[in-house]
Amino acid sequence: MKRFILLFLLLNVSVTAHADDVRMSTSKGDIYLKVHSELAPETAANFLRLVNSGWYDGKQFYRVVPGFVIQAGANRDDIVQPNVPGEYLEQKSPLHRRGAVGLARDTDPNSGNSEFYIALDDIHRLDGRYTVFAYVVEGFDVIDSIAQVELKETYIVYEGQDVAFHQPIEPVVIHSAKVITHDE
To answer: Which of 35, 69, 153, 168 would give a disulfide with 117, using CB separation of 3.0 to 4.6 Å?
Structure first.
């Protein structure tokens, strides 16, 4: 009986050890993320909940800032997701290296919910200011391809100021985002 329990625990660990891997299939190719719950437990849990619910399926990378970030997951014209408390103060630097995935937010540090960004370069000035919860592990060519799309300038008024959004002319769509195991 002890052997059976030990075997079950070992098998369970091997199945769940990769439960936080996510494959985002986009119109430019696949991006693989490793979600690090130990960095930001609430943010990671929220992201995985959204992935499992299909929230990101059909969403666009609507903001592209070459040399900085690509951003997706906007809830405009959708159901508004609950906010997640900022978890960046407890995080040890440097976190914002190329491929870091962070929770986008407005000026309120606790306003992040469904939007995320992927760092295109090391941007350590965001360390201690934005929550990192995952890293790209494969698909750097895809994020680079997204960063090179033709853009148009659009502006929104936020808190009385015009904010520029570098929006792709041809939409870059997340066809699906799925939690995967290494067998997939």
So the answer is: 69
Planar angle of CA 121, 126, 129, nearest 5 degrees: 155
Please tell me the predicted confidence (pLDDT) of residue 78.
58
CATH code of the domain in which 157 resides: 2.40.100.10
Within a domain: 6: no
Q: What pTM, to 2 d.p., does this model score? A: 0.84
Vertex 37 angle, CA 96 and 111, to 5°: 65
Nearest Cα neighbor of 99 from 3, 22, 32, 24 is: 32
Residue 160 maps to a domain: yes
* Per-residue pLDDT tens digits for 144-184: 999 999 999 888 787 787 777 899 999 999 999 999 976 55
Indicate whether 15 belongs to any domain.
no
Above 90 in pLDDT, residue 116? Answer: yes
Distance, in Å, from the CA atom of 57 to the CA atom of 95, rounded to the nearest integer, reads 27
Q: How far is CA 162 from CA 1, 39, 79, 155, 157, in A?
A: 67, 33, 25, 6, 5
Q: Residue 116: which domain range?
A: 20-180
Structural domain count, the chain: 1
| 20-48: average pLDDT | 95
pLDDT value of residue 77: 61
What CA–CA distances, in Å, run from 66 to 79, 149, 166?
29, 9, 9
